[in-house]
Amino acid sequence: MAYQFSYRSVEEFHTLGYTVFRQILPPSLIADLRRVTDAARVIARERAGPQAQRLQPVGAFDLDTAAFQDYADLPELIDAIARVLSPRHRHGNRDLFGVLFEPAEQPWCTAWHRDWRDNIPGLDIDMWERSMADGELFNQVNCALYEDNCTWVVPGSHLRHDTPDEKALFPQGAIPSPKLDGLTYEERERAGLDYSRSMPGAVRLCLDAGDFALYRNTLWHIGNYSPHLKRATLHDYGHTPVYGVWTRNAREKARERRGAG
Ligand SMILES: O=C(O)CCC(=O)C(=O)O
Ligand SMILES: [Fe+2]
Asked: Which of 111, 125, 177, 239 is most buried, by the most CB atoms less than 10 A from its CB?
């Protein structure tokens, strides 16, 4: 069935912090993107080893650009993003987006986090908190080329600060990821699952091939990975020039603060 935009996506995006444009990529484009991301996976593992999580931005590497261009030009996608965000928000910039992969050897997971606040050391947290509700910023994408249930989210958490329950989970700041050293493959898998489920209100973001999830990266989220779950998910943005400026300023300021600390 061809994708059809629904205004439910707008409501979902604002209330839950994410919405999924189901099967918006046509099968022929999925096939082309699978081919180029197979090449990207090889490069990612050459550069960062067998547990590599991503290659980003794709434009920095020697990859065939035709399928990426078709993805960027897909009219249904441009239209759906414009309706949920704004016509200023664009996806598919090869200098920005990357691809997320399954690890080759061992299951692992990221820590529960809100992007920027918890994964950019030195970030001016006040500045991030002041910007948290700005719809121009923080719009992110996971576009799955294979079934992908790696990402977990806490729906609605983009609308608020941390609850007392959440604060109790991480009195020293970001929630530490689970200890995996010395565990077997299956124990690592279970530890990642237990840790993902330990967050109050957490739900799994279930994507099928060709699904495009648009979400606020201020939302609580996590990625939980296993080698037997093949993954090639485009990790993209609903980008605007204003977000570009915010990003550059925030990174520069964080670098200065790290240098001064
Ligand atoms: O793998 C995912 O879907 C999430 C990754 C993520 O949140 C991150 O790397 O910041
Ligand atoms: Fe993240």
From this structure: 239
